[in-house]
Amino acid sequence: MTDNPTIFALSSGTVPSAIGVIRVSGPQAGAALAALAGRMPTARRASLARLRDGAGALLDEALVLWFPGPNTATGEDLAEMHCHGGRAVITAVEGALAALPGLRPAEPGEFTRRAFANGRIDLAEAEGLADLLSAETELARAAALANAGGALSRQVEAWRERVLVLSAEVEGVLDFSDEEDASGLPECFTWNIAALAEELRTWLARPRSERLGEGFRVVIAGPPNAGKSTLFNALVESEAAITSPIAGTTRDVIERTVAIGGVPFTLVDTAGLRDAAVADAIEAIGIDRAKGALARADLVLWLGPEGIGPHDAWEIAAQADRPGFTPKDSARFTVSAMKGEGLSALKTALVDRARAALPKPGEAALNARQHARLGEAAAALEAAKALSDPLLIAEELRRARLAFDRLIGRATTEDMLDTLFGRFCIGK
Ligand SMILES: Nc1nc2c(c(=O)[nH]1)N(C=O)[C@@H](CNc1ccc(C(=O)N[C@@H](CCC(=O)O)C(=O)O)cc1)CN2
Ligand SMILES: Nc1nc2c(ncn2[C@@H]2O[C@H](COP(=O)(O)OP(=O)(O)OP(=O)(O)O)[C@@H](O)[C@H]2O)c(=O)[nH]1
Ligand SMILES: [Mg+2]
């Protein structure tokens, strides 16, 4: 009981709310529920119960659930109390739980950590869950759910199996290496290693999952008064940037992360680019910052004269509603941010462009940690491919397998787990 305390926490977000779900996980979960509810509810069936503290005082009337382990979300005995979500209600129920022997409040991510410790989920699935909880867009949700549901883990298991088969072949050669007719490894062996390494390289080249949080970076640039901030405001659908007829209004780089068509974007407004000699000192700093932002863009929307923007920028003919506006042949889009004209075509094109650069919907994407481990596996396989000594090949295959194990958390360190589970909120 001391080395495995029973934990409890509010698992349903902020108070006050309509309903506050308090979860209890661990060996004392059943006893705790019985103590508060006055009886042991039927397993896996919702029922209404009066919750009372140790002195018999009524705390709340709540829906309660009892999930006996090990087939539960945490792999332990698990109880839930769906209380009224008022601050005092939650505090009172938590207080009654804390007074019971062997119970303590959960740390951030501790329920998920137990699910991992009990083999209910692996590391890649836990990371998927963390991403799912922080997903802000439809695309991020779909990618995180794929990983949380084990899409990446299953893929890694399949690769690991293939390496195991290859290892067995090498070991076979090693076992018989004393014999005279030891013919070495078959030709298809190297070919199989190469094919696997190639497959890993394809995965490594895919867009990374962090991109889903950061969004596709679109930088709006051009000379002063081109209508950059007005277009920026229209795209982020708020008056985030000041607009005015005075040239040099925007000085700072202004960023907003928004979802357009379920796809995450970071839109960036910049100071108008012009000769630093014409600009005042502050504006000149702004122009420097704008150049910095341009360097980090995934795509530039260029609102300036034809042909002098960044070479792969999209040229935008802005302020199309102005009297005397002359359409430009070179412009990819003609818009009036003020009248809202041409914006939907621009948005559609931006969504298409961003989708190509971001993880595909529902396709398992790699985060930085997973990418590093997979990179190690690929490097080991490429090394194995170049070797002829079976002993050395066996060693490289072991390295590849260790990298896969680390990827899905068969081999982990406490530090790594602290970092991952610290990402979760209390109650998850
Ligand atoms: N009320 C409530 N809602 C919730 C959760 C929760 O813990 N409580 N979850 C918390 O994350 C998520 C659902 N995740 C869950 C994962 C596994 C099991 C579970 O009991 N699994 C068993 C039995 C499955 C079954 O009945 O078919 C198993 O896998 O063996 C429950 C919830 C989201 N919604
Ligand atoms: N008629 C019309 N006026 C526009 C349009 N877009 C911008 N303007 C006007 O043009 C002026 C400059 O617009 P801004 O969006 O501030 O231009 P900017 O490119 O951000 O300028 P700086 O921040 O100084 O570099 C403002 O007076 C806007 O109201 C448009 O689509 N139609
Ligand atoms: Mg501006």
TrEMBL record:
Its cofactor is K(+). It comes from the Bacteria. GO terms for biological process: tRNA methylation; tRNA wobble uridine modification. Mg(2+) binds at residues 229, 250. Binds 1 potassium ion per subunit. It is found in: Cytoplasm. One of its GO terms (molecular function) is GTP binding. GTP binds at residues 225-230, 244-250, 269-272. Its EC number is 3.6.-.-. Keywords: Cytoplasm, GTP-binding, Hydrolase, Magnesium, Metal-binding, Nucleotide-binding, Potassium, tRNA processing. The keyword Nucleus does not apply. One of its GO terms (cellular component) is cytoplasm. (6S)-5-formyl-5,6,7,8-tetrahydrofolate binds at residues 23, 80, 120, 428. CDD domains: trmE, TrmE_N. Residues 215-355 form the TrmE-type G domain. K(+) binds at residues 225, 244, 246, 249. Its main location: cytoplasm. PANTHER family: TRNA MODIFICATION GTPASE GTPBP3, TRNA MODIFICATION GTPASE GTPBP3, MITOCHONDRIAL. Exhibits a very high intrinsic GTPase hydrolysis rate. Involved in the addition of a carboxymethylaminomethyl (cmnm) group at the wobble position (U34) of certain tRNAs, forming tRNA-cmnm(5)s(2)U34. Homodimer. Heterotetramer of two MnmE and two MnmG subunits. Belongs to the TRAFAC class TrmE-Era-EngA-EngB-Septin-like GTPase superfamily. TrmE GTPase family. This is tRNA modification GTPase MnmE. It comes from Erythrobacter sanguineus. The lineage of its organism: Bacteria, Pseudomonadati, Pseudomonadota, Alphaproteobacteria, Sphingomonadales. The gene is mnmE.
